[in-house]
Amino acid sequence: MMAVYEATATAPVNIACIKYWGKRDTKLILPVNSSLSVTLNQDDLCATTTARADLAFERDRLWLNNKEEEIKAGGRLATCIAGMRSLRREFEKTDNSLPKIAEYHVHIASKNNFPTAAGLASSAAGFAALVSALAQLYKLPTTPSELSIIARQGSGSACRSLFGGYVAWEMGTKDDGSDSRAVQVAGREHWPEIHALICVVSDIKKGTSSTSGMQRTVETSPLLQHRTSNIVPERMTAISKAIKERDFPTFAQLTMADSNQFHAVCLDTEPPIFYMNDVSRAIIATIVEYNRAAVAAGGEVKAAYTYDAGPNAVIYTLKENVKEIIELVSHYLPHAVPFKDAYGLFAGTQPV
Ligand code: 2P0
């Protein structure tokens, strides 16, 4: 009987606290600054990818949510597939008994388990799942950090989805990108009380893609230079420390400050880029007031908002505040109620 070479892998969505925005090398996808994210619960939001290698296949093919996508020569998909194939080739050289499946073409099918209405970038989970599925298909003895170097060349933020929990993408200094990879700062079990509430403000596709928007920022924003040289390095150190010490107020303040600065460099771009809308800003005002009242009552900062390249909010908070925040958003912003049943929980915590 002919052997069947097939594997399936999943990868979750991640939401950055310290934002990646800008490349120093657009082909290798090397960033201008390091970034740090929280990986959401795999069960809630993930991409699932199946890869199969077969001597009978005539070319590599890929289906995304049941629709075939073109694998353009030299494009991001082709680069990731070629990178994984090259690792398999190296592996085959180490052991003559391994079947020579690096020579076979592959068929890849990927699906997201979240509706596009969630307004979440799916490229991070998608490329991480693609690389993981090929790593399993090829039975590679590769670490997630090594795989992250290939996932990064599919979509920068994808490298962070190779790990659960709290993940840093170290920008690296080498020109070949061999040290620009993801590392886990802490596992999800280290601080499982944190929840991420996703508030869908709008599901309309964004006007400026991240890829083109961030390059315009690199080319035109004087503020970006200050951010990458003077702000992000210290924030990376400080937020890693806050995570290790489970210091929520510091984690929250850094997360909000970095979201604000990311949107500030977007505004500093020529022509300016706007991702947040009036509802996004109203959610910020609500969280600011919520934290002010908590501190005024002798407590601490209890919630952090963060926004990516779109108007939807993600609110980080501790489990004990989840119910209160959902009620608050439901009251003031009924159209942006967190998807509390489907999403918003990560790190294996129990549903509210
Ligand atoms: C992040 N974003 O750190 C930031 C915050 C959007 C805002 O990573 O060109 O889709 O594929 O490397 O990874 C979006 O950028 O861009 C992103 P490419 P990607 O999550």
TrEMBL record:
Gene Ontology molecular-function annotations: ATP binding; diphosphomevalonate decarboxylase activity
Catalytic reaction(s) noted: (R)-5-diphosphomevalonate + ATP = isopentenyl diphosphate + ADP + phosphate + CO2
Gene Ontology cellular component list: cytosol
The keyword Oxidoreductase appears for this protein: no
EC number: 4.1.1.33
Highest taxon of source: Eukaryota
Pathway: Isoprenoid biosynthesis; isopentenyl diphosphate biosynthesis via mevalonate pathway; isopentenyl diphosphate from (R)-mevalonate: step 3/3
GO biological process terms on file: isopentenyl diphosphate biosynthetic process, mevalonate pathway; sterol biosynthetic process
Diphosphomevalonate decarboxylase-like N-terminal domain sequence ranges: 11-181
Keyword vocabulary terms for this entry: ATP-binding, Lipid biosynthesis, Lipid metabolism, Lyase, Nucleotide-binding, Steroid biosynthesis, Steroid metabolism, Sterol biosynthesis, Sterol metabolism
Domain Mvd1 C-terminal per the UniProt entry, residue ranges: 196-352
NCBIfam families, per database record: mevDPdecarb
Family per similarity comment: Belongs to the diphosphomevalonate decarboxylase family.
Protein name: Diphosphomevalonate decarboxylase
Organism: Phellinidium pouzarii
